[in-house]
Structures are given as structure tokens and as C-alpha cells.
Amino acid sequence: MRSVLRMSLLLLPVILIAPANLALGPARLAHLPALTLWAWQMPERLDFIDPAQVGVAYLDQTLLVREDVVAQPRVQPLLVAPGTRVMAVARIEMPAGHGSQSQEIKSQVVAALLRSARRPGIDALQVDFDAVKSQRRFYRDVLVRLREQMPHGMPLSITALASWCAYDNWIAGLPIDEAVPMLFRMGQERGLFGLKGPSAAIREPLCSGSLGVSTDEPWPQEIGRKRLYVFHTRPWTRESVTEIFERSKQ
Questions:
Q1: Is 60 inside a domain boundary?
Q2: Mean per-residue pLDDT for 175-197?
Q3: DSSP string for the chain
Q4: Total count of domains within the chain
Q5: pLDDT score at 206
Q6: Residue 227 belongs to a domain
Q7: Structural domain range at position 65
């Protein structure tokens, strides 16, 4: 999930409905549907989905972190059915050799993430950052500050490299509600998850409740009752969403 997206938010205040009285703690995610569609770098019209069964996680902005932070907002249109549970996704892109510990840079990143969390009608926030080892302290500090300042009761999700969930426990104790194991576009971890399946391979509790998959790659055989996030390389259609339902039941 490395693409830079732009989007117009003009539709969002009209078509999104904010929830009331969200539960706290691990139960923050309980009100979200079991199936969530990632809406990435293209115009999306999802007004045909059933809000009781399908949520939408749309890329709200991409943060380019160098010596400064440049926020690239989405400008592609997004339309969802009234009452849809909507998650704003903020992508962080930082060169592998850049692991800034600048308090100013951290503050800028947190402020940008809070803008996504505070969009009208947003139900949850997801942060997408493939942090390398030298960037983990930076990422942890950002997430701690973010959690402290986010709207009260709002769920905080992150995407997670498969290794973070299987044998690298650096995300343990993060102030998040879930880490979504990305079981597509994998490298050497593909063999581990293919042989053992996600339930056997995943050891980090934060990763145990959800899975991230793509329509153009094989899915793990055991999906079970996990929350499923699905990426699609083309705009979503009624047919492609129907295929997702059928595939998830196999």
C-alpha cells in the first residue's frame, strides 16, 4: 500500500454519519462491520453497499516525512451509502535511512493524523506505515501522542507487516486497538503463513482479530471470524463486492 492518493472531501460531510456512544478499550472496534473495503488511489462509488455488512477504509492523505512533513490530501471522489462505517487511512512515507527523532517532526505528523481523525463522520483512524527498525521509536512515539489526542473513544488501527505479527514483537504494548496483518505483497513471510496459516503463525495479540488481503492474490484458507480488510486494484463494483462475499465463505 505505497501509492499516493488525492481526494475531494466535499461529499463526506453530507454522506457520512457519525456514530454515538462508542465503546472503549478493546471493544472500540465492535461496532465496525466484519468486512471493510480499502478505497485507495482511484474514484470510488460505493453507494450500493449494505452498511450493516460492509465498511469502507479510504486513503485520506499521504504524509511525506523528510526534513519536513508534506501532507498530500486525497482529491479523488468517494461516495458511500448513508450510514456506512468509515475509517480514514493516513499513509506515512519516510525513506528507509531516515528515522527522525525531531520533536517538531513528530508533532507535525501527529497534527496531520489528527486532521484525518477529525474529519466529519469518521468512525475510526488507520495509520499505514511500513516502518523499518530505525524508525520504530519514531513510530511508537507518534502513536502514543496520537492516542492521547484523538477523539475520545475513536478506534485506532494500524496496518502491520506480517513479520511484526509472527516473530517480531516490537508492536507489543502500542496504544492501538488492532494491527492488521498484511497478507499480500509479502516477501519471505509468504512461506511461513502459507504453511502454517495465519492462526498458527500470528503470535502478537494485537494482530489476532483481523487480516488484510487483496483480490489479486490467494487468501489464507482460514479466515474464521476475523475482521477482513480487502484491497482491490481497480474501482469496486457490485460484482467485485459480491465476489468478496462468496470468497470469504469458502
A1: yes
A2: 77
A3: ---------SSHHHH----SS---GGGGGGGS-SEEEEE-SS-EEETTS-TTTEEEEEEEEEEEESSSEEEEE--S-EEE-TT--EEEEEEEE--TT-----HHHHHHHHHHHHHHHTSTT--EEEEE----GGGHHHHHHHHHHHHHHSPTT--EEEEE-HHHHHT--TTTT-S-SEEEEB-SS-STHHHHHHHHHHHHH---GGGTTEEEEETTSPPPS--TT-EEEEE-SS---HHHHHHHHHHHT-
A4: 1
A5: 94
A6: yes
A7: 33-248
Q: Which three cell numbers stand for residue 11?
A: 461529499
pLDDT in tens, 16-75: 333 333 333 357 898 899 999 999 989 999 999 999 999 999 999 999 998 899 999 999
**Residue-wise over 99-120: b if at least 16 C-beta within 10 A, else e?**
bbeeeebbebbbebbbebbebe
- Give tens-digit pLDDT for 194-232: 555 566 778 899 998 999 999 999 888 777 778 999 999
Look at residue 5 and tell me if it is in a domain: no
Which amino acid belongs to residue 213? V
Give pLDDT tens digits for 65-76. Answer: 988 999 999 999
* Grid cell listed for 144: 502514543
Dig out the grid coordinates for 76 from the structure: 479523488
Report the CATH number that the domain containing residue 79 is assigned in CATH. 3.20.20.80
Q: Does 214 fall in a domain?
A: yes
Pairing type for strands 54-65 and 69-73 reads: antiparallel
Cα torsion angle, 60, 64, 69, 72, sign? negative
